[in-house]
Design brief:
It contains ten helices and nine strands. It is α/β, with parallel strands linked by helices. It folds into two domains: 183 residues, Rossmann fold (3-Layer(aba) Sandwich), CATH 3.40.50.150; 61 residues, Helicase, Ruva Protein, domain 3 (Orthogonal Bundle). It has a seven-stranded mixed beta sheet. A two-stranded antiparallel sheet has the order 1-8. The radius of gyration is 20 Å and the shape is elongated. It starts with 11 loop residues before the first strand and ends with a helix.
């Protein structure tokens, strides 16, 4: 028996009803599919039942990767990469691809940020169907004027439309985690009102402002802009807190930063 590695945040999905529910969120037939962290292949098996055109698997664990390569050695439409998802440049592997992933809790936000920051816009994926720790999912979905609103939701919702699909009980996994999970369905947002040149600039600005989220933004804004530049931001209330700025204002702020 192969045991889960805590260091890799491995929690294997064992509830076949949940597996089917996740895979059924998309029409997979004759589509290009990529799965992040397939583990022991629960989602993979269900994906293959739906006859995708191609399937890319990215698995960091050496033993699991070897198992998958052995299991699918006769399948010509499957490519398996034994890679660390955070270090692997897989954007060029995509072609109108649907991405699935039961993401490791400890790096799930980093994986999402990596995908959000892909160079191509519109991106080369058609949908993301990803599972997160429930608290993390709430932060991604987080709407303005709610307690979960923050830099992650601002960043994610600039590039993506985010849909909260369903929660998953700890009983659906082995080993059993202590918290609930949530499956999100995300698709490219093609209607962006404020075109930003580099999404890394939006990431930088939100990171700086939310580093002091309880303080008024007038102090942290000085880390980004000069006094003269701040005087040009007449439409901004510099006495508000980061959570009191709606997403559109962050996009405007980023565009202003890029114009300097």
């Amino acid at each position: 028996m192969y045991y889960a590695k805590k260091s890799l945040g491995q929690n294997y999905l064992i509830d076949l009803n949940i597996v089917k529910k996740i895979v059924n969120l998309a029409d997979i037939y004759n589509k290009n599919i990529l799965e992040i962290g397939p583990g022991k292949g629960a989602l993979t098996s269900e994906i293959l039942k739906n006859k995708p055109k191609s399937l890319i698997l990215i698995e960091k664990d050496n033993n699991l990767s070897d198992e998958l390569k052995l299991k699918y050695k006769d399948r010509k439409n499957i490519i398996i990469y034994n890679k660390d998802i955070l270090k692997f440049d897989f954007e060029d592997k995509l072609k109108n691809t649907i991405i699935f992933g039961n993401l490791p809790y400890n790096i799930s936000s980093q994986i999402l940020a990596k995908i959000v920051k892909f160079k191509k816009d519109p991106p080369k994926y058609s949908a993301l169907i990803l599972m997160f720790q429930k608290e993390m999912a709430q932060r991604i979905v987080g709407k303005f004027n709610t307690s979960k609103y923050g830099r992650l939701s601002i960043l994610a919702n600039y590039r993506l439309k985010v849909f909260d699909k369903f929660d998953v009980s700890p009983n659906s996994f082995f080993p059993k985690p202590k918290i609930k999970s949530t499956v999100l369905y995300l698709k490219p947002n093609t209607k962006k009102f404020d075109k930003i040149k580099k999404i890394e600039n939006l990431e930088k600005i939100t990171k700086i402002l939310f580093s002091n989220k309880r303080k008024m933004i007038n102090k942290t804004m000085k880390k980004i802009f000069s006094k003269e530049q701040l005087n040009l931001l007449k439409s901004f209330n510099l006495k508000c807190r980061p959570s009191e700025l709606e997403p559109k204002k962050y996009y405007e702020l980023t565009k202003f930063f890029e114009s300097l």
